[in-house]
């Protein structure tokens, strides 16, 4: 009988000691997260999960929401839950904490500053496409006759241009207009004296060395106006990437200089925003000199200087600096 009493006493002592050890107060730091338990909440600390048994005691706080970093003091409990997701944890006190402030080795007394910087870059590249716009302009007292004359000349110009530009060029009509020509006299309504018909043709070609030939062929066939010549870069990915990279490096470099001037350093880039690209072509070539050259009997092909394009990029960076 005494032995039985002794054994029971030892069991009670062991259980009491185990419960005392198990109920030891601990501090848990982690992120709030919902759980599959009905109305349940977890504190996720690394790979360990703590199931909050009394989450309702803290849900009235504005900061109590998913992904908030918290510090909780309480005791683990040996209880059964529906899904047993995490260690049951009864919280005595809980407060939100800043994730960076909770990072080991961080000096809370250090001041941080955010700066917004813009980085610009200009990369030069050779154009790969030429765009030439030429026109046939005819005038006549009769609108129909002006149109018919223009149609005949434009047809000849388009055939000549296609032959000069080559099979890979795109030749298309880009504009057509019939405008009455008026004379204005004081005190009288305007009088229509004739009509002007304009038919514009745009040639797009990747063979830049044929631009001069296109102009000469168009003038010889009857074109009497060159609206303009432009050069562009269709395959611009490589140049754009280079400009973007250089603009970003410039922005980050500025941020580092500002941080150093303030006696600190850049600790992280908070945000990067690309503000876009701009392709500035070479100075366009304008004029009607091709017709003048043909009229004067000049045999030298029209010279065209292509030049280079400017591919410009701008990046805006928000950086966080920390004083030493």
Order the strands across the largest sheet as they lie in space: 1-2-3-5-4
Task: Give a quick account of the main beta sheet: strands, pairing sense, barrel closure.
Answer: 5 strands, mixed, barrel
Radius of gyration: 40 Å
The tally of helices reads: 5
Question: If you had to describe this structure to a student in words, what would you say it looks like?
Answer:
There is one protein chain. With 324 residues, the chain is of the alpha+beta class. It folds into 3 domains: 22-96, Bacterial OB-fold (OB fold (Dihydrolipoamide Acetyltransferase, E2P)); 110-128 and 234-324, Protein of unknown function (DUF541), domain 1 (Translation Initiation Factor IF3), CATH 3.30.110.170; 129-232, Protein of unknown function (DUF541), domain 2 (Alpha-Beta Plaits, 2-Layer Sandwich), CATH 3.30.70. The protein has helices spanning 2-22, 143-165, 211-221, 237-261, 289-295; strands at 25-34, 41-45, 48-52, 69-76, 87-96, 112-125, 129-140, 170-183, 191-205, 225-232, 264-280, 309-323. Strand 8 and strand 9 (191-205) form a beta hairpin.
Give a quick rundown of the structure.
By secondary structure, the protein is of the alpha+beta class. The chain is built from five helices and twelve strands.
Keywords:
single chain, 324 residues, alpha+beta, OB fold (Dihydrolipoamide Acetyltransferase, E2P), Translation Initiation Factor IF3, Alpha-Beta Plaits, 3 domains, five-stranded mixed beta barrel, four-stranded antiparallel β-sheet
